[in-house]
Amino acid sequence: MKKVYYITKKNSNKAMRDIQYLELLEICFIQDDCLLEKIKKSDCLIFTSKNAIFALEHFAPQIWKKLPCCVIGNGSKKALESFGIKAEFVAKNPYGVSFGEELGEFLANKKPLFIRGQKVASNLLEILRNKGVFATESILYQNKILKLSQKQRGILKPKKDSIVFFSAPSSIKAFLKNFSWEDDYIALCIGKTTKNEAKKLLGENAEILLSPKVEIESSLEFAKEIGGYNVKN
């Protein structure tokens, strides 16, 4: 069986069996001095990451919770539910460009506020503008790459013939900051943006697969399946 490594952030929930969690990222909150004013001027919120929800709760607890919320997938949907909030809109296709296309119609005549990280995979605001929706944004967090010590790298480097799971372009960059990519590894990516970044950064000899699933847990189950694990209930 091939070992499965998940490149993830510090203090992640390590709930899945047979998964090696490599914590190479850290979420750092960023203060926006105009946040409260932006919330007051908005009538709905957009989230493309659960980290954006946690960051907003950190900076503006309670204040945002009466506004309708639009999310891109189950991760963000579940994060809202942890605060007792039901998403007003959940994307049918959880990718950035498709999300923007879907949102355009739903947000007609609204004043949305996009809560986001410092770097995003798609230009959602431009997509919405092309649909006649003019959103504002608030950047409340960033993904910081953690640099392992030489000793840690020696201990944690993925074994030969491993499957390495990347859920975002930032996780590929975090991996390469700490380890070299070996030709016998398999990269499994969520989304075309992440796969394209993998093609660019891992080299032409890299074996790169696009997960048929769009949720992290389902993708990890798929990784285990191709790794030779028995994943049947």
Distance between the termini: 18 Å
At CATH level 3, the topology of the largest domain is Rossmann fold
Q: What count of domains describes the coordinates?
A: 2
CATH architecture of the largest domain: 3-Layer(aba) Sandwich
Write the element-wise H/E pattern from the N-terminal end onward: EEHEHEHEHEHEHEHEHEH
- Helical coverage, percent range: 25-40%
Structural class: alpha/beta
Explain what you see.
- Catalyzes cyclization of the linear tetrapyrrole, hydroxymethylbilane, to the macrocyclic uroporphyrinogen III.
- Belongs to the uroporphyrinogen-III synthase family.
- Its EC number is 4.2.1.75.
- InterPro entries: 4pyrrol_syn_uPrphyn_synt_sf, 4pyrrol_synth_uPrphyn_synth, UROS/Hem4.
- Keywords: Lyase, Porphyrin biosynthesis.
- By secondary structure, the chain is α/β, with parallel strands linked by helices.
- It folds into two domains: 4-25 and 148-226, Rossmann fold, CATH 3.40.50.10090; 31-143, Rossmann fold.
- It is built from nine helices and ten strands.
- It has helices at residues 35-40, 50-59, 74-81, 96-106, 124-130, 150-156, 169-178, 192-202, 216-226, and strands at 4-9, 19-29, 44-47, 69-71, 89-90, 112-117, 136-145, 163-166, 186-189, 207-210.
- It has a ten-stranded mixed β-sheet, with helices on both faces.
- Helix 5 links the parallel strand 6 (112-117) and strand 7 (136-145).
- Helix 2 (50-59) packs parallel to helix 3 (74-81), helix 4 (96-106) crosses helix 5 (124-130) and helix 7 (169-178) packs parallel to helix 8.
- The longest helix is centred in the middle third of the chain and has 11 residues, at 96-106.
- The mean pLDDT is 92.
